[in-house]
Amino acid sequence: MYRSQKLSLRYYTAAVTLFGVMILFGLLSALYYLYPSMLFNVFNFSTSKILHIDTLVLWLLMAFLGAVYWYLPKELEHEVVGMWLAELTFWVFCAVIAVVAVVFIFVQYGPANDFTLWFINQGRKYVEAPRWATIGVVAVMLAFAYNVIATCVKARKMTGIMWVLALDLIPLVVVYLDAFSYDRNMSTDLYWWWWLVHMWVESTWEVLIGCIMALVLMDVMGTSRRIVEAWLYIEVMLVLGAGILGLGHHYFWIGTPQYWLSIGGFFSALEPLPLLGMVVHAIYDAGSHRLKTTNRPAFFWITTEAFLNFIGAGIWGFMMTLPQINLFTHGTQWTVSHGHFAFYGAYVCGVIAVFYVAKQKTSRAGMLDGRAWKWSYALLNIGMVGMVMGLLLAGMAQAFFGRAIGGSTLMAFTTASENPWFVSGMYARMLFGLLFAAGYVVLVYDLLTSPKRVATLAMQPEPA
Amino acid sequence: MTNENGDTARAGLGGDLADPIFWRAGAISTTVVMLIILAFLTADSYRYISVGGINVPKYDVINQHIGYQFDWSRHADVPVIGSSEPLFGNTVTEAQAAELIRKGKLVIQSRACMDCHTFFGNGAYYGPDLTKSWLDPAWEQIWIPMTGKATREDAMVEFLMHPDQYPTWNRRMPNLHLTEDEAHATVAYLKWMSAIDTNGFPANFGPAGKQP
């Protein structure tokens, strides 16, 4: 095992831990909708929500870094260059997250001055972490970029996947620089903020997970490099071809010119295409393997990733992306429904597959299967789909009664939030959220369980 | 299509469709073209979204009356800038207005308003959207009587400083300890923001906004 793969296991541990923290604050945030007086003036909804969405970004990012550190030496047949730096930045990353979390929990907010932006809270959704911490994140990303590029140079080897990954590091770092911005004009502020949020989540990250999935497919399914690389390029072409101007679907209502309604509507309507391509690919791969594999959990999570990415990001996004509809659905729980489904389908499923790849290798299990992973697989998927449906129901009530009929005033917002559809949607979300949390607990149990037991359970002869 | 080993391929569109190099060229050229288009559109969008641009008024618009009306030529609700109506009864210079807005934005970020509310529909969905909140009829109908203040802006300041004392329903706004200056600046910010042309979002906003 390479040294960088040991580091990658540490990244996975941190990621899984933050995944749990995210779920915890997700459940708490959901609870405020049912019991609004809970912790009032002590620990408000906003703080809980910040911890929920920021840990979301961080745990996925940590899992991505872990996955790249896992595959980098394998792909290049060379130990990662600058491992001391990689190990140091891991601890820096953890320390930054811990300090920011403590400040969020105990300080929460500050007076309206630069000190608050530097040391307490920047208050821009997803970029709440104070500026000093964003410097830390940039340092981590730069060290990561150095590791990747220096290893390619030292190994004197460059594969197609590595080219895509290396080039993707540029926007990954550059776009993040908007995390330092303070702009008094809300329109220009949000214009660039969307470069950060959209270009990370709907472009750069999609390409990054595409690279990781390409490596996983070769590893778990034994797909040939030629096929995987051709698909990766097609995916990059479609993701960036539709996604770069698909950015326009965030530019409908922020003061931007009217032509963004057409451009954003058109290109974001194309965004499901690459995701559909992934589904076709997954069916093809699954069929060609007749569902036979030595790592059943990873195999199932990869296939699920393809389907739910298409449904959650593709269909759920398309459902509300045309401006005529978005005028009423924008900024409601409908968006939340799409957000949950898209993140889950596009990233979470793939990342769980990566965890199982590592588990199989570290446990030296010839065949990875068992009962626990099936329970967590079922609970996580049912929990997520249930939450998504509950949120959709609530969001539709808001779009119809709050926006279309009520006109988005305070009274309209209140009326919609007291609508039985909204209320029952919120209860459903809470219930399925608990199922999701149970799935997480089983997942952690399964990832940590002594592999031998699982291996013996699974070592049954396959029918020829 | 290719077989499992990827070694049989049909040529088409002038290239070998199973050849990664063919798709690499496609990926690079598509990305470059899209980025160039985005750069041009961004430059053009700045003519609209800069302060004093086509859609975003100068900060001293807070000295004027702001309405929100359906425009038949645009088929959307648009802000209508009216006659003089100074905020808190004081006409401010452009520099003073800019300073108020700077402070107001700092309040919005330091209190993480966006993690309960939305601006232009972006943020969190626990509290109402604030895009046109300056024009919300609730100030006149609910908070002026409740706070006993004479004007909308004074009622807003009182509410922002002690939101927990003026609940309108079970989801209350917590007290985020705004100073009076900070509350003034926030009100100025909300008034300025309501004058931004947002292509008709939110649609059909309350009756108070309909008055020219």
Describe what this molecule looks like in 3D.
The complex is a heterodimer of chains A (464) and B (212). By secondary structure, chain A is an all-alpha fold. Chain A has 17 helices and no strands. Chain A is globular and about 60 Å long. Chain B folds into 2 domains: 11-49; 59-210, Cytochrome Bc1 Complex, Chain D, domain 2 (Orthogonal Bundle), CATH 1.10.760.10. Chain B is elongated, with a radius of gyration of 24 Å.
What fraction of the residues of chain B are assigned to beta strands by DSSP?
5-15%
Q: Runs of chain A with pLDDT <50, length 5+?
A: 453-464
Strand order in the sheet with the most strands of chain B: 1-2
So what's the CATH class of the largest domain in chain B? Mainly Alpha
Domains of chain B (count): 2
Please give the largest β-sheet of chain A. none
Provide mean pLDDT of chain A, rounded: 92
Strand percentage of chain A, roughly? under 5%
Number of strands of chain A: 0
How many beta-strand elements of chain B? 6
State the CATH topology of the largest domain in chain B: Cytochrome Bc1 Complex, Chain D, domain 2
The ordered H/E elements of chain B are EEHEEHEEHHHH
The termini of chain A sit apart by: 33 Å
List the helices and strands and how they pair.
The complex is a heterodimer of chains A (464) and B (212).
Chain A: H1 3-34, H2 45-76, H3 83-106, H4 114-119, H5 131-155, H6 160-174, H7 186-221, H8 225-246, H9 259-270, H10 272-289, H11 296-321, H12 323-329, H13 333-363, H14 372-405, H15 410-418, H16 420-448, H17 451-458
Chain B: E1 11-12, E2 15-16, H1 20-49, E3 64-71, E4 76-84, H2 94-110, E5 118-119, E6 122-123, H3 138-147, H4 152-161, H5 180-194, H6 207-210
Antiparallel strand pairs in B: 1-2, 3-4, 5-6
Helix pairs in contact in B: 2-5, 3-4, 4-5
